[in-house]
């Protein structure tokens, strides 16, 4: 049998550029009246047609058309002979998952194969409609069903039949919820030999198929690829060939049980000999996986399936813990051996970072929910009482204060002798530190809870009305962008691009200088988490509980990690790891390149702020009223 | 050439002549070089200097590559930034479909980018486009794909598009043409990924480089315009190499001339036009078995 199978639509030898399809109502071979085109392939169309031999009832058939594209009569004849020989073989196959061949004929430059019409959808359509991966349960049951029919083909005598084109598009689910294999590689005889640069699209076929080998293991690989596509919702034709190993199933879809992932990995082995020997061995493995994961004979998912899949990691013990009088919603700041942290108990605390010992506290008249900033001997912090305070790092005594007309939830940023801070009064304030006086304020028209980012002579921040604003140091507006919902997250600038999220479910990348949108990435839910950037990746959490890693240059997802509840605080990169807290009460540490969990540490309350890391120690607060110090 | 010098020095020929009369002592080559360098760097407004060249090669009888360059300055009341749109497309497929494919792709892509990117930004009511740059680029590639499928059935083409606005560039890429960022310190950073099947097999260790060289599917791309299967183009954005160059070329160049050699030719040439000519000559001397195309953009220092 013909072995080269690069689906190609380039036909340099073709006599005409485009293949003309038949209009509806044409009667073929005096018997089959075409109704509609139900599929298009490189060699022709597939029509739904009515069989006129049954005049009293509407009997539908599928007619596959293959156009003979060579001009050489000798080659034309050979093609037709090969086609007819193979049609004869197919006509003898009897399996519930293989459509029956009813007839075949050739006329003019075309050959036709008449088959049982399948009323249903193919698996590609199903996964697109669903908009997400299919359930592992479904994948197991479909995988077993497909192994069954492949096993039947591979056991064919005198020669095994290799399907060689297993992909979601070629598997249909009929109205009785049974899978059917469609599109046997019979059309390949009509492919014209090619020279020069060609285009071949692949995704599901194994590497050896390009060397001309087609064995049962090729079908095993393609079935693995098909299941991978269905479970990950990532179309392998959009990815580099043979790159499944770069997209571990469970990192994309944590619901996939390890046993099922292992079976698919074996099927997708790069070397033929490392895969299952044939479909029957793969079927055994899938049955085993189904038994072990409890899917077989069970109708619903066992409780806690999703969570038990995460490794608990080693034991993480805090170096010290400090108790405040109320929740800690913001983030600590480290400066010269001291840790400064605000609490909802209205206090700003100074702690010894090595021991967690209390040094002093400073009382404001409102909750302190942001992150303090330090300049030399002054800690600067905003409070929900509307004031910005400067406090002596040594004594905890107030040096000066500055009043805004609304609660402060934004964190101060210090640059060029000024503090920049947003307030619920709708202004961005620039306060001169030496003079303790306002240099300017900018009316943003809405509450500002986003912490400004200051760099390149520019101040960037978002508003609760959804404006993203870039100001110059004089308080003049450079550009603005309007998102559909509030921008609470704090922007970060890297290599001339500014990154921020909005409650409109989007992570944005904009040209920092001119405000052009470079890309936007759709999150699973709203986000108020401030992004972190490192090594061409931007990291951000969302209230869907996901931590996203997105390529800064392409705007494509690199990986995603699922926590058990909202992620509101911004993540932090330190050395090889990414640290962040979640409302699920855990502080997570992941490998930032792969998104694999290294460890997590559970507190007794939700974590809404960001951790900070200094000298291999992670500091963070929790709504359980405690400040923690852990070894990173 | 005169026009070029006028551009380079930003003043008229007569001024230059007048000045030449006052010259008292000849300058040595190094001094002249330094002067040219200094003057070039003082161009106001900042602009891109671009060269482009194309050759049918030594072994082909027709050209299936298409090139496009457009260089200007976007000036508004508050700023002025260089703007450049550059495209290389390498067509394939018999019956002249290769030419039609590459030309169609270039026309379609440039048309789209003018409509969706350049005009909104530069036009009278200079506004930000609604969509992101990457969405505009990806849409452009998909439109070009459709245009190629319609106008050159059976043909295919690569398409590498670079748009420079100010100090940032956005790249859309399909196929095995390439874009490089070239820094003055000799670094040649490849900005694109070849969508070549055999290259992929070689990377995976499935075949050796020697086998790759003679592999029957050596020229098979796993992604190109004109294909019917769905695909997502590679679109990325990055800061421009400043000071430095951006080079866009077809495989007729990079397949025959090494990175080091390309860098040497570019850094030794007096201007981007000459550099492109030198690159093409080098590829032809190395056998020129394919069409050769190159666009070289020099960024403001």
Q: Please, could you describe this protein's structure?
A:
- The complex is a heterodimer of chains A (632) and B (301).
- Chain A is built from 8 helices and 42 strands.
- Chain A has 632 residues and is of the alpha+beta class.
- Among the domains of chain A are: 27-116, Phosphorylase Kinase, domain 1 (2-Layer Sandwich); 121-188 and 206-296, Orthogonal Bundle (Transferase(Phosphotransferase), domain 1), CATH 1.10.510.
- In chain A, a hairpin with a 2-residue loop joins β32 and β33 (537-541).
- In chain A, α3 (136-154) runs antiparallel to α7 (279-292).
- Chain B is of the alpha+beta class.
- Chain B folds into 2 domains: 1-42, no CATH class; 48-298, PPM-type phosphatase domain (Phosphatase 2c, domain 1), CATH 3.60.40.
- Helix content of chain B is 39%, strand content 26%.
- Chain B contains 10 helices and 12 strands.
- Chain B has helices spanning 2-9, 13-22, 29-41, 97-122, 133-151, 197-203, 209-214, 251-254, 259-268, 272-285, and strands spanning 49-55, 65-75, 80-92, 156-157, 159-165, 168-174, 178-183, 188-190, 220-221, 234-239, 244-249, 292-298.
- In chain B, strands 2, 3, 4, 5, 6 and 10 form a 6-stranded antiparallel β-sheet that branches. A 5-stranded antiparallel β-sheet of chain B has the order 1-12-11-7-8.
- In chain B, a hairpin with a 2-residue loop joins β5 and β6 (168-174).
- Mean pLDDT of chain B is 84; it is low at 1-23.
- Chains A and B meet through β10 and β31 of A and α5, α6, β9 and β10 of B.
- β10 (198-199) of chain A pairs parallel with β9 (220-221) of chain B, so a sheet runs across the interface.
> Which percent band covers the strand fraction of chain A?
25-35%
The CATH architecture classification of the domain at 121-188 and 206-296 in chain A is Orthogonal Bundle
Shape of chain A: elongated
Strand content of chain B: 25-35%
User: Whole-number radius of gyration of chain B?
Assistant: 21 Å
The CATH architecture of the largest domain in chain B comes to 4-Layer Sandwich
What is the CATH superfamily label of the largest domain in chain B?
PPM-type phosphatase domain
Number of strands of chain B: 12
Strand arrangement across the biggest beta sheet of chain A? 1-2-3-4-6-5
CATH fold-level label of the largest domain in chain B = Phosphatase 2c, domain 1
CATH H-tier superfamily of the domain at 121-188 and 206-296 in chain A: Transferase(Phosphotransferase) domain 1
Most extensive interface: A-B, 47 and 51 residues
The CATH C-level name of the domain at 121-188 and 206-296 in chain A is: Mainly Alpha
Biggest sheet details of chain A = 6 strands, antiparallel
**Largest sheet properties of chain B:** 6 strands, antiparallel
């Amino acid at each position: 049998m013909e072995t080269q199978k690069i689906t190609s639509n380039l036909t340099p030898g073709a006599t005409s550029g485009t293949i003309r399809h038949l209009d509806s109502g044409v009667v073929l071979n005096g018997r089959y009246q075409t109704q509609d085109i139900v599929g298009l392939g490189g060699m022709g169309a597939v029509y739904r047609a009515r069989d006129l031999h049954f005049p009293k009832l509407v009997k539908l058939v599928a007619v596959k058309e293959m156009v003979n594209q060579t001009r050489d009569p000798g080659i034309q004849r050979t093609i037709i002979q090969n086609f007819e020989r193979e049609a004869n073989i197919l006509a003898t196959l009897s399996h519930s998952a293989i459509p029956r061949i009813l007839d075949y004929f050739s006329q003019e430059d075309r050959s036709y194969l008449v088959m049982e019409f399948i009323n249903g959808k193919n698996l590609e359509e199903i996964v697109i409609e669903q908009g997400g991966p299919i359930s592992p349960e479904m994948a197991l049951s479909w995988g077993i069903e497909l192994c069954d029919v492949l096993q039947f083909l591979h056991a064919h005598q005198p020669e095994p039949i290799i399907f060689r084109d297993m992909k979601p598009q070629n598997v249909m689910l009929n109205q009785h919820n049974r899978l059917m294999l469609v599109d046997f590689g019979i059309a390949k005889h009509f492919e014209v030999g090619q020279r020069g640069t060609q285009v071949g699209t692949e995704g599901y076929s194994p590497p050896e198929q390009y060397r001309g080998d087609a064995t049962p293991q090729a079908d095993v690989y393609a079935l693995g690829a098909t299941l991978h596509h269905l479970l990950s919702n990532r179309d392998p034709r959009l990815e580099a060939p043979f790159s499944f190993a770069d997209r571990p199933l469970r990192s994309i879809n944590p619901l996939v049980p390890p046993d099922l992932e292992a079976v698919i990995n074996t099927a997708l082995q790069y070397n033929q000999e490392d895969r299952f020997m044939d479909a029957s061995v793969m079927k055994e493995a899938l049955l085993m996986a189904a038994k072990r994961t409890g899917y077989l004979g069970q109708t619903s998912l066992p409780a806690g399936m999703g969570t038990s899949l995460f490794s608990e990691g080693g034991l993480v013990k805090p170096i010290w813990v400090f108790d405040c009088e109320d929740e800690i919603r913001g983030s600590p700041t480290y400066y010269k051996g001291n840790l400064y942290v605000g609490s909802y108990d209205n206090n700003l605390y100074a702690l010894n970072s090595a021991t967690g010992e209390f040094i002093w506290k400073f009382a404001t008249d409102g909750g302190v929910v942001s992150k303090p900033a330090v300049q030399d001997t002054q800690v600067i912090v905003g409070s929900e009482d509307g004031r910005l305070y400067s406090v002596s790092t040594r004594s905890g005594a107030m040096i000066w204060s500055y009043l805004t007309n609304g609660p402060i939830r934004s964190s101060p940023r210090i640059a060029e002798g000024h503090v920049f801070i947003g307030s619920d009064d709708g202004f961005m304030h620039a306060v001169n530190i030496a003079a303790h006086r306002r240099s300017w304020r900018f009316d943003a028209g809405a509450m500002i809870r986003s912490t400004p980012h200051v760099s390149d002579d520019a101040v960037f921040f978002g508003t609760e009305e959804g404006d993203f604003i870039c100001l110059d140091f004089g308080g003049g507006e450079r550009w603005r962008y309007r998102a559909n919902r509030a921008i609470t997250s704090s922007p970060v600038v890297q290599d001339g691009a500014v990154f921020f999220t909005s409650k409109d479910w989007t992570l944005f990348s904009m040209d920092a200088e001119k405000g052009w949108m470079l890309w936007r990435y759709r999150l699973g839910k709203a986000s108020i988490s401030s992004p972190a950037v490192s090594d061409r990746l931007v990291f951000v959490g969302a209230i869907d509980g996901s931590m996203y890693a997105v390529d800064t240059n392409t705007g494509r997802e690199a990986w995603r990690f699922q926590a058990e509840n909202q992620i509101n605080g911004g993540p932090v990169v330190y050395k090889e790891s990414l640290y962040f807290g979640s409302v699920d009460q855990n502080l997570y540490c992941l490998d930032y390149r792969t998104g694999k969990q290294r460890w997590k540490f559970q507190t007794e309350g939700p974590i809404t702020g960001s951790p900070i890391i200094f000298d291999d120690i992670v500091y963070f607060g929790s709504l359980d009223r405690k400040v923690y110090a852990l070894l990173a | 050439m005169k026009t070029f010098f006028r551009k380079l020095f930003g003043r008229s020929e007569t001024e230059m002549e007048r000045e030449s009369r006052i010259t008292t002592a000849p300058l040595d080559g190094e001094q002249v070089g330094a002067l040219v360098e200094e003057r070039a760097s003082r161009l106001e407004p900042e602009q891109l200097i671009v060269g482009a060249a194309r050759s049918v090669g030594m072994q082909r009888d027709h050209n299936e590559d298409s090139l496009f360059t457009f260089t200007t300055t976007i000036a508004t009341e508050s700023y002025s930034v260089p703007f450049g749109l550059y495209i290389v497309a390498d067509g394939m497929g018999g019956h002249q479909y290769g030419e039609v494919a590459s030309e169609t792709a270039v026309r379609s892509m440039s048309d789209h980018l003018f409509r969706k990117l350049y005009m909104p930004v530069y036009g009278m009511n200079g506004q930000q486009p609604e969509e992101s740059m990457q969405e505009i680029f990806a849409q452009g590639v998909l439109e070009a794909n459709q245009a190629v499928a319609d106008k050159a059935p059976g043909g295919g083409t690569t398409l590498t598009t670079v748009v420079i606005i100010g100090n940032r560039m956005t790249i859309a890429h399909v196929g095995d043409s390439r874009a490089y960022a070239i820094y003055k310190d000799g670094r040649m950073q490849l900005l694109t990924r070849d969508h070549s099947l055999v290259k992929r097999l070689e990377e995976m260790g499935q075949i050796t480089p020697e086998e790759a060289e003679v592999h029957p599917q050596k020229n098979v791309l796993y992604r190109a315009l004109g294909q019917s299967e769905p695909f997502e183009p590679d679109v990325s954005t990055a800061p421009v190499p400043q000071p430095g160059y951006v080079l866009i070329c077809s495989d007729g160049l990079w397949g025959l001339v090494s990175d080091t050699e390309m860098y040497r030719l570019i850094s030794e040439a007096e201007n981007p036009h000459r550099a492109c000519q030198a690159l093409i000559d080098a590829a032809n001397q190395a056998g020129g078995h394919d069409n050769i195309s190159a666009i070289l953009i020099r960024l403001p220092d």
